[in-house]
Amino acid sequence: MATALTLLANTFKEDAAKFRTYGTQVPGQYGTIPAADIGGVAAPLGSFYTAWSGPMGKAVDGLGALSKLLGYVADGAEAWDDGVAAQFAATPGRNPLDRWIQQRKAWDEWLKTHPDGKPKEGETAPEKPSDQPPLHYTNTDKNGVTTDVTVKVDGNYDVTEQTVTITDHGTTYTEHTTYGDNGAYNTVTTGRDGSVSTEKVEVDGAGRGTKTITDKDGTTVYTNPNIKDPESPWTKVVKEPPYRPPIGGGGGGRDRR
């Protein structure tokens, strides 16, 4: 839509330029026509062109601004879609690692009462998991978009590092996240345009969190009194402007007594 509006704005701009060229010549479909050739119609046409040149110019400016705005919205929506897709790909219960962990727990429980792993008559044994957890998987959807996920785990099979790459017809979006204690993490995102942004969450012993987001627009900091509470909000930290004493004094001076 942004491209269509740009084309429309250019058309309006060209028409507005035609409106301002009247005088001895009147704009036509394929150039200009001498005013003398159309007699008394030339003057009314000239007035019409003059009256519409101003509104047409404003329409051009408005369409140009709207085109840029829709372009920004499209870029933001694309980044948001990629981020949602990356989070969905790594959501617990939707990836092979989580399924393997659940199978491992079920199998361990089964072995407590069936040391040989074999079911008794009338029983059905749970599915035996593989010896090693799946740490990499990939999927290509019907639209040709490929999602690739690689994870690293600790001795308890908790994820310590994760990389999600989405490849969409020649463009690539990547999120690389390292996880710390108490919900802390650090994510580095590389967008389809090659831009890099970071999101870092630090958590103290009391569960208070500080989130720092750095992207092309700068750095923004948020705080949360309790990140373990899903209802606890992240609040943006507003920087106070530096104090500047008024011109001509007012800042006080040293006490020379």
UniProtKB/TrEMBL annotation:
Domain of life: Bacteria
Compositionally biased region (Gly residues): 247-257
Chain spans, region Disordered: 112-144, 208-257
Descriptive protein name: Uncharacterized protein
Biased composition regions of type Basic and acidic residues, renumbered to the chain: 112-130
